[in-house]
Amino acid sequence: MLLKFLLLALGVSTAQAIEPFTWNNDTFLLHGKPYQIIGGQMDPQRIPYELWGDRLAKARSMGLNTIFSYVYWDQLVPEQGEWDTSGNNDIARYFKTAQEAGLNIVLRSGPYICGEHEWGGFPAWLSEVPDMEVRTNNPAFLSAAKSYIDKLGDELKDLMVTNGGPILMSQVENEYGSYGANHEYIASLRDMMREAYGIPLYTNDGGEQSMLEGGQIAGALAETDGSPQTGFAARNKYVTDASSLGPQLDGEYYITWLDQWASNNTHQTDVGNAAAIKTATSDLGWILKQNASFSIYMFHGGTNWGFQNGADWGNALEPITTSYDYGAPLDESGRTNEIYHAIRQTISSHVGKKNVPDLVSEKPLIEIPSITLKPSVSLFDALPDPIRKTAPVNMESVGQSYGFILYRHVATASMNGTLKTGDAPRDRVLVYVNGERVGVIDNTYEVPNTVQLSLKKHDVVDLLIENMGRVNYGSQIVDQRKGIVGNVTISGTVVSNWEIYPLPLVSPPSASGNAPKPSANSSPIFYTGSFDVKEVGDTYLELPEWTKGVVWVNGVNLGRYWTVGPQQSLYLPGVYLRESGNSITVLALEPTGDEGSVQGVTTRKWGNNPDPDMKS
Ligand SMILES: *[C@@H]1O[C@H](CO)[C@@H](O)[C@H](O)[C@H]1NC(C)=O
Ligand SMILES: *[C@@H]1O[C@H](CO)[C@@H](O)[C@H](O)[C@H]1NC(C)=O
Ligand SMILES: *[C@@H]1O[C@H](CO)[C@@H](O)[C@H](O)[C@H]1NC(C)=O
Ligand SMILES: *[C@@H]1O[C@H](CO)[C@@H](O)[C@H](O)[C@H]1NC(C)=O
Ligand SMILES: *[C@@H]1O[C@H](CO)[C@@H](O)[C@H](O)[C@H]1NC(C)=O
């Protein structure tokens, strides 16, 4: 007894402190014990905070032990110097809830995250900082990034694994090797995060030589995403710096892919495709047997609430739909599907059934019978005070990040010809003369329509421009200013003297004056209505005759709708409803007079319709 006591005492006094989270060549070590990361991506800011606990419990009961989370800088710092952790931005609370659910966290705080989020997570105000160049070793960018990372480090301090919290490690940048190879830039971010977070760091790149060589940095574990077989082999081959080697992690295993507006694709999902599900489970099973780690991108995608969606750039703007369902195992409404159950089976057979908690119960979705909405106010009758400028200026320069912006000009002489709205349409330009829509110029088309104007003196020209989501990936991210950049010209003649109306539409305007009468080519109209439900629950809102716009329920912006699809209904979670007196507002950007009703359905449909504005 005495000897054992003495040895124990000796052991305690001489043993090196165990790193809370570290790794050797083959495995991660949590408090000294091998830890296989069985992870999935789920970003708090795409989920109503009231539902975090439910989604996290469902992650745990699929067998996950770790949640990978992007953090959206633009939402936390909506204005330079601000820090907003209200509502869905209370990420410390999300990570605490994860810990209570038995989950660890891998932090992916960017500052660039991609994530199909607005500008890859960059706040729009960065555009107005002098000498700013994003994603590079630029003093203006590094200084803005540092204030964000430092603040985040303070916010999450108690939640770091080094302080007994669930956050194990943090990613530096995001797939940087697909974008550049400026190692000084990645080293700057690495040092910034090391100081602010004090936890181990990793990088995550595509499984190709140039990507790994561009993104890898000494002192951060180099990991890959995409195909695990390709990624692991590429990491073994191309990363030679011992300080970046360690256990293999597929940091983003994609089951399917995202949905884009006007893509002429149906919703991307493997539901109903047994062969594709088998491929996914066999890949994940293979990773587990290698003693390697993974994160499923996405475990649960959630919703691009309001105007949070980003866009890709192909040969044209490819804006991401409001739904970020992503064909994930846990669908947009938080329901499990057959992918979930198949993966749960794969994980169970690896970790043992007793280590996977029971399934979480699910309430059925609700139907809401047709709600009738009535025209309440025209957008052009609810304008804020204008900003007057000789030449138009971009949205960010008037302190606006998202939504719409209107540019108005009163013709001082007759003018005819082709309209050009600055250097490029940014993004969808609705053109009106004396309140009648005369054309649409839209950057989501490789060859946007052209609009011919024939103006008389005193004619009023309105250019209503929608920011459809800033590009989140590729070289286009360098300049993501919205609205008008450059001059407006008609057949090459510069049009001067503009009234500029910022329309962030954080909430819809209240009605005043006469109700507008919709007709073909009329200007945008807000419709309003109210409804009760028998029992509060989740639903999908269908908008059958509506062309394009935005929906608010009880003041919450549910996001954009657009008949072109593939998304044809909007997720409305029960947490935003009450039994009686729910209010709904729908902005009809292109009213025809046929719209007016919406309904809640329990099964959503996806599909594409022709864009009525693109008739040739
Ligand atoms: C870990 O890997 C490095 C680099 O491949 C090698 O030099 C080292 O011997 C390995 N360590 C162990 C304990 O296997
Ligand atoms: C959309 O896809 C369908 C089926 O693949 C094709 O027939 C049609 O031409 C496409 N439409 C457009 C506008 O690209
Ligand atoms: C995985 O780990 C187990 C237990 O430590 C070991 O028996 C097995 O050989 C390892 N498999 C591989 C592929 O490294
Ligand atoms: C524009 O067209 C109208 C009608 O075709 C014509 O009356 C007017 O003179 C033209 N104005 C200019 C500046 O060319
Ligand atoms: C816009 O037009 C004004 C007046 O013609 C000219 O001075 C200015 O350089 C133009 N700006 C751009 C970006 O072309």
TrEMBL record:
<dbReference type="InterPro" id="IPR008979">
    <property type="entry name" value="Galactose-bd-like_sf"/>
</dbReference>
<dbReference type="Pfam" id="PF21317">
    <property type="entry name" value="BetaGal_ABD_1"/>
</dbReference>
<dbReference type="InterPro" id="IPR048913">
    <property type="entry name" value="BetaGal_gal-bd"/>
</dbReference>
<dbReference type="GO" id="GO:0004565">
    <property type="term" value="F:beta-galactosidase activity"/>
</dbReference>
<feature type="active site" description="Proton donor">
    <location>
        <position position="175"/>
    </location>
</feature>
<feature type="region of interest" description="Disordered">
    <location>
        <begin position="593"/>
        <end position="616"/>
    </location>
</feature>
<dbReference type="InterPro" id="IPR026283">
    <property type="entry name" value="B-gal_1-like"/>
</dbReference>
<dbReference type="InterPro" id="IPR031330">
    <property type="entry name" value="Gly_Hdrlase_35_cat"/>
</dbReference>
<dbReference type="Pfam" id="PF01301">
    <property type="entry name" value="Glyco_hydro_35"/>
</dbReference>
<dbReference type="Pfam" id="PF21467">
    <property type="entry name" value="BetaGal_gal-bd"/>
</dbReference>
<feature type="active site" description="Nucleophile">
    <location>
        <position position="252"/>
    </location>
</feature>
<dbReference type="GO" id="GO:0005975">
    <property type="term" value="P:carbohydrate metabolic process"/>
</dbReference>
<comment type="similarity">
    <text>Belongs to the glycosyl hydrolase 35 family.</text>
</comment>
<keyword id="KW-0732">Signal</keyword>
<dbReference type="InterPro" id="IPR019801">
    <property type="entry name" value="Glyco_hydro_35_CS"/>
</dbReference>
<dbReference type="InterPro" id="IPR017853">
    <property type="entry name" value="GH"/>
</dbReference>
<feature type="domain" description="Glycoside hydrolase 35 catalytic">
    <location>
        <begin position="27"/>
        <end position="348"/>
    </location>
</feature>
<keyword id="KW-0378">Hydrolase</keyword>
<dbReference type="InterPro" id="IPR001944">
    <property type="entry name" value="Glycoside_Hdrlase_35"/>
</dbReference>
<feature type="domain" description="Beta-galactosidase 1-like first all-beta">
    <location>
        <begin position="392"/>
        <end position="504"/>
    </location>
</feature>
<protein>
    <recommendedName>
        <fullName>Beta-galactosidase</fullName>
        <ecNumber>3.2.1.23</ecNumber>
    </recommendedName>
</protein>
<keyword id="KW-0326">Glycosidase</keyword>
<dbReference type="InterPro" id="IPR048912">
    <property type="entry name" value="BetaGal1-like_ABD1"/>
</dbReference>
<feature type="signal peptide">
    <location>
        <begin position="1"/>
        <end position="17"/>
    </location>
</feature>
<feature type="domain" description="Beta-galactosidase galactose-binding">
    <location>
        <begin position="524"/>
        <end position="582"/>
    </location>
</feature>
